[in-house]
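Researcher: For the record, we're logging two predictions in this thread. I'll number them. Prediction 1 follows.
Model: Prediction 1, sequence and structure:
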Amino acid sequence: MRLASVDSGHTPENQVVLDRIREQRGTEPTGVLKTLYYRPEIFGRSFSEALDLAMRGPSDWSPGERELFAGYVSALNQCPF
């Protein structure tokens, strides 16, 4: 379930970025991108930094293994990855 505001509640500046993504890719931006641009003060840089640490920071698992885990969990949740 995604809130309608995540699909349409972006600032004009962020809407321009999402429109450019649509034009360049020829597809709708993913829910993750829409969320990152919806509330960048919460989901933007701070979320991206935490994600980078989790996926690329010190660990017994390689970045590839962590990507595989993320893909598997996304599949279990029926979420496109």
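Researcher: Logged. Prediction 2.
Model: Prediction 2, sequence and structure:
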Amino acid sequence: MDSVLYAEKQKQKSEEHEALCHHCGSCCGVVDGDLCLNLVKSADNKYFCKDYANRSNQQQKTVSGKNFSCVPIRDYLRYNPPYANCGYIGRAK
């Protein structure tokens, strides 16, 4: 398969996977109370990253001051179980 087609297929798969998100904020600290500083809550009680496009390119910080590197949700779910009602349950791979 040519590299351009492969890259397009990978992008499509990533978009399909991310579309499953319910924007509950659990992966970003809502459950444990140590939220990412880039996490914002909308008027309809959904959470979004205010720097989503650049989240993986820089060191991130939680409200308690912990540093971390943001990783794609697929990588996160390989090592952490999804939370109740998570749109990714059963789809981590």
